[in-house]
Amino acid sequence: xxxxxxxxxxxxxxxxxxxxxxxxxxxxxxxxxxxxxxxxxxxxxxxxxxxxxxxxxxxxxxxxxxxxxxxxxxxxxxxxxxxxxxxxxxxxxxxxxxxxxxxxxxxxxxxxxxxxxxxxxxxxxxxxxxxxxxxxxxxxxxxxxxxxxxxxxxxxxxxxxxxxxxxxxxxxxxxxxxxxxxxxxxxxxxxxxxxxxxxxxxxxxxxxxxxxxxxxxxxxxxxxxxxxxxxxxxxxxxxxxxxxxxxxxxxxxxxxxxxxxxxxxxxxxxxxxxxxxxxxxxxxxxxxxxxxxxxxxxxxxxxxxxxxxxxxxxxxxxxxxxxxxxxxxxxxxxxxxxxxxxxxxxxxxxxxxxxxxxxxxxxxxxxxxxxxxxxxxxxxxxxxxxxxxxxxxxxxxxxxxxxxxxxxxxxxxxxxxxxxxxxxxxxxxxxxxxxxxxxxxxxxxxxxxxxxxxxxxxxxxxxxxxxxxxxxxxxxxxxxxxxxxxxxxxxxxxxxxxxxxxxxxxxxxxxxxxxxxxxxxxxxxxxxxxxxxxxxxxxxxxxxxxxxxxxxxxxxxxxxxxxxxxxxxxxxxxxxxxxxxxxxxxxxxxxxxxxxxxxxxxxxxxxxx
Length: 609
Description:
Oligomer: single chain
Radius of gyration: 34 Å
CATH class of the largest domain: Alpha Beta
Structural class: alpha+beta
C-alpha cells in the first residue's frame, strides 16, 4: 500500500473514531447528565395543580367579620391531554348541555392547549364527590379546589364589592391570572386586589393512565406553597351600617358618615342595595343579570359615590365660608330679605322675614342672604372680569372637595359637577354675570355633588378647616398595621376663624331652627337642613350634621330621594344614626317608627292635598 493510501486510511479511521466518540459522549450526556428528556417523559404522567391561596378576610373596625371564604370545586381541563370520552356522561355529571361543553372546550384550546382552563365552576361538595368517582373516564380533566366569598351579614354590598372571572384583557395585562381565575371587580375587593389575592402555589402529582392521582411527585419537593392573602380591617362600623340600611329600606338615597379626625368612613349606605351573597356561586351570572335589569331600583348603582345630586341648602355652608375668605361678608354682615332675591325680572323666593346676619342666615337658611353673598363674591370689583371672579370661587370650592375625585380606595366615584369658566362662556356667548349662575348660591342650578363630597364638607367644618381623604380600609395584614395611604392632612384654604359663625348658625339649626327633629338628648349638635329641588318628581330630603360640636366624632350627610323637606325625614335619620353611633343603641323609638313608615304617611299627605 502506497503512502498516500495509508494516509487516507488513517484519516478515515480517525474520523470514524471521532464520530463514534462524539456519539458516545452525546448518549452519556442525554442519559446520565441531562435530565430534560427524562423529566419530559415523566411530565406525561405528572399534573401540575395550581393552589389558589385563601383570599384575605375583611373585618369591620371593631373586629366583626364582614367577608370570609368557603370551599368549592372547579372542573378543569388540559386540552392537550383530552382523549375520546363519553360526553353525555360528563354533561349529566356536571349538569351542562353538550353545546356548552363543546364551547368551553374550544375556548380552552384557543386560550392554551397546555394550560388548565375551567369547564364547570363552583361545584358543591356533593356534586364533586359523585364526579370524583368517574374521573378515570375523562382523561385530561381534573378537579381543583376553589375559594368563594361569603357574607355573614348581608350589608355594605356596594363598598365591600364582589369578585368575578378575569377578562381576556386582564389575562394579557397580568400574568398572575389564568383563564377562569377570579379578581376583584368592585369595592374593597377591587381596590385591594393585590393584598387580598395572596400568592399562588402549585402541587405536582403523579397520575396513572386512568387519570387518577397516585401521589405527590418527588415526595412533594417540587411543590410550592401558596401564600394566603392579607386580611383587611375596614373603617366601617357594622352595627351603624346595618342600622343605616334598615332606615333606608324601601327608599332611594344615601347615608355617609365620616370620623372627622381621620377621614375614616363609618358607614356608607346606598339604597336600594342587594344581598352580596347573590353574586357568589354558580347562580352569580343569573343574579347579576336580574339586578342589572331592575331599572326601577338600580340596586347595583352606588348612589353614595356616583349619584350627582343638587346639594340644596346644605351647599350654603360652603358659600358662606368662601364669601368670608374673600372678605365679602363677616359674622355681622346683614342683608335684608323681603321674601326673596330679585334679579333680571326673576325672583328666587325665600320665607318672609326682614333679614339676617350670617349666623341667623344659616339658622333660617335665608336664600336672599346667600344669593347676595355669592353674587358679591364672584362679581367683586377686585376682579377684572366675571371669569376671574368665578374661577376664584371655583378654586375655593374645589379645595373643599367638590368637582373632583378623592382618588382613595373608593373605586368608580364621580367627581360631581362644578362647571368651568369655559362652560359658561360658551353657554352665554361670553356675556354673563353673577346673576346668570345665582342658583348655585343655594345648591341648585348647575352644581351637582355626591353624598360623599357633602359628608366630607361636614367633616371639614367639624375640623374647622382641614380633612383627611375619606377612605374605607383602616389596617392591612394586622390591626396593628395602620393604612397610611391617606394620612396626609388636606387644607381647605379657609381660615379657621371663619368656621365659628357657620358652626354657631348650625347649632341654632338644631336647637331652635329647621333641624330640631335631629336633636339627640345630651348631645350638642351642629346641622343644616336642605330640600333639593328635583325636576323629575318630589324634592329630595337633605340633612347634614356633626356631633358633638366641641370634639366631633361623627359627621353625617343624608339624602333621601323624593323625601320632601329635609327637616323631616333626613333630619330624623341623621338623629337616629348619631344616637346609634355614640350610644350603641336607639331610644328614640317613635322617631325610628316615623322614619320606617315615612313614605306611607308622606304619600297619604300628598294624595290628600
